[in-house]
Each structure stands twice: as C-alpha cells, then as structure tokens.
Amino acid sequence: MPNKKESIATKILTGLRGVWPAQAANEDKGLNKSLLTDPAFLEFVNMSPAGISIFSYETVSYEYFSPNLLEMIGYPAEKLEGIGGAEFTVNTFHPDHLGVVFQMMEIVKKYYYEYALQNRIMDTRFTWTVQTKKSSGESLWTLMQTNMLEVNAEGFPKRVLIFVSDISDIKTNSKVDFVFSIKEPDGRGYEPVYISHFDPASAEYVLTEREIEILKCISKGMRNHEIAYFLHISKHPVITHIRNIMKK
What we know:
Layout: H1 2-16, H2 39-47, E1 50-56, E2 61-65, H3 67-73, H4 77-80, H5 82-90, H6 98-117, E3 124-133, E4 139-151, E5 157-166, E6 176-183, E7 190-198, H7 209-219, H8 224-231, H9 235-247
Antiparallel strand pairs: 1-2, 1-5, 3-4, 3-6, 4-5, 6-7
Helix pairs in contact: 1-6, 7-9, 8-9
C-alpha cells in the first residue's frame, strides 16, 4: 500500500508540472508576501473559518500557509512549503482518495488549457472535498476552493489561491466531490462545467466526463440528435450514454 500511495502521489505532482509551458518558468520573480504579513490581513484571515494557501504551478510547490490553516492541520509551515512539502501534503490525503485526486488534476489541466486559449483562465475555479490526516493522526474532511491568482505571459496558470475549510462536522458521506466552474458572462456567479461525486465504495455510480456533458445538454432542453451534433458524435452513442445515466 505505501508504495502504491507514493506512486499515485508522484503521478499527481508530475501531472501538475505539465500545466504550463516549460519556458515560462524562468519569468517568475517570487511571491510578493508583503500583503500576507500585514497585521490587518492576518487579523482578517484568523477571523475567517477558511484557511489560505498559495500554490505555484511553476515550481510545483506551496509558497504560503495562513496561521489559521497551519493550526487547522497541525503541521509547521517548513514541512509543507517547497517541492518536498507538496509531496508531503499530497501524501496526507486518504489513500483511497489519491486515485480520484489524480483524475481530478487531469480534468483541471484539460480545462485550464481550454480556457487559457480563450483568455479566460482567470475566470476559472474548482472546488473539491477530500479527507486528509492532521499531524495528530486524526482524519479531517476539507473543502478546498481554488481560484486563479496569477497567470504567466502566455496566459497559463502561475499561482492559485486555495481556501481550505474544515467540514468534518457537516460532511455526511464519504464521497470526494469535485466541481470545475467558469465565471458567468455577467460576472455575478459561476457556472459548473464539470461535476463528479466519487464514492470509493460505489465507483460504478460515478458519471463519466462524456455522461456529464450529455446531462448538461439534456438540462438545456436539447434532443438526442441536437446533442449528437453538438458533441460531434452519432446519435446511437448518445442514446447509450443516456441509458447508462438513467441506470446510474
């Protein structure tokens, strides 16, 4: 089990290294932490139910953890920051969740590229729940919302701001929830473009990416032939997918 866990963790980190063009890595001058040490900012963060971390896609490492987040998880900042810290952090995830986290990161990469080409990557965010382990050994269900903080010259992800909340008292199931969203045109909210709820005990009930695309089309009132035309597939696979969705 440990070897399998480390293998998946390595895959996750390796996948994250492919999020941005390699040549852009040299442009980074480091994170400006002036605001993060401002007393007023720290007071505001410590009053918030959510902790904050900042992750760099270019160095594949965490660059900042707010004091209330460190208190929540119980680990010192020096153990979590840097490349070694990123690997350590991934390995605090529940071993049964690492596989789906890897799948989630692949989906994130896909949408990052798609919206980077549209110059809309700053409008993206993804939210997920995962069970982690505190320094005390206790399990902790967390809700993580990842918002784009900075992009590089090519418009690809550079840094993200992650809000982390302890939802152990309100989480009523063992599912790893994941939602990738894009800001609506009027800027008033976010529209989900991908949703999944992974249950390690019932993996067969998780909708595939294609099934979710078809479900979104159905929710817009589209008919089978319209869905087929929109997704560039024939009508028969659409019918099969709908049958599978209904069965699930």
